[in-house]
Write a structure and sequence with these properties.
binds S-adenosylmethionine, Rossmann fold, 11 helices, alpha/beta, single chain, 266 residues, 9 strands, 39% helix
Length: 266
Amino acid sequence: MTSELRPRTAVVNAPLWGGRARDWADIQEGQCRSVYVAAFDRLRLSPGCEHLDAGCGAGMAAQLSAGRGASVRGLDASPNLLAIAQERVPSAAFLLGELEALPYADHTFDLVTGFNSFQYAGNPGIALSEAKRVAKPGGQVLIVTWGTPEGMEAASLIRVLGPLMPPPPPGAPGPFALSDEPALRAFAIGAGLEPLEVFDVPSPWHYADLSTALRGLLSSGVAARAAAHSGEDAVNAAHSRVLEPYRQPDGSYTIGASYRCLTARA
Ligand SMILES: C[S@@+](CC[C@H](N)C(=O)[O-])C[C@H]1O[C@@H](n2cnc3c(N)ncnc32)[C@H](O)[C@@H]1O
């Protein structure tokens, strides 16, 4: 793993997403496992595919991709998350870097994926244009974002953090801005991609008990930002309130979540 980090959003996001990297890797990341599997099935990921996972976090998607025989590289802002990714996939090349300035040559990859990552770049449009630049012409780019909030139980866990955050800049897009299909397609077109298929993958979040749920939820960069502004207790209290109706008789929690995926041609 190399350690050059250019000073864009990555510098701000690294401590937010990596502050509780183990909790992210052990609890929260796996809530998306079925999304990685469904996406790789849909993309027909095959051995020998040159795959970049942009905003790879702790590397679960990279691990699944390597398991299917792809030649995987991963890039993320957080050294703590990358260290876990490298442990999990020793054969993959992970880089510390910035989504808006990918350190790869033009036309390098057959597949570039962004599992809930492009939207966290300071300028998501630039990040996606970078994904297109490093993809081979005709190669595939996958954008994954939140599913539509209507009917998604976990949307309330996301919304509850809004009042605990510093006020957003005027006109800043909300967390569900890309969940709208026309907006998601327009996002791809804006980066010079040809949008192909939109599909949703249900991926309910499950926690063995409340303390595990609170640790998992607090490990996201968004929750870390809310905690820095309003305090950890306020974030935990807000999460606990939302989770209460989802408590199962055995003390575990299951809350419905869904992700929206767009495949596009570079
Ligand atoms: C929601 S997490 C998703 C991580 C991983 N793809 C997953 O599915 O678990 C967002 C990731 O984007 C990374 N990230 C955010 N802004 C970034 C930036 N500007 N440059 C590089 N990585 C960034 C964070 O460090 C974090 O790992």
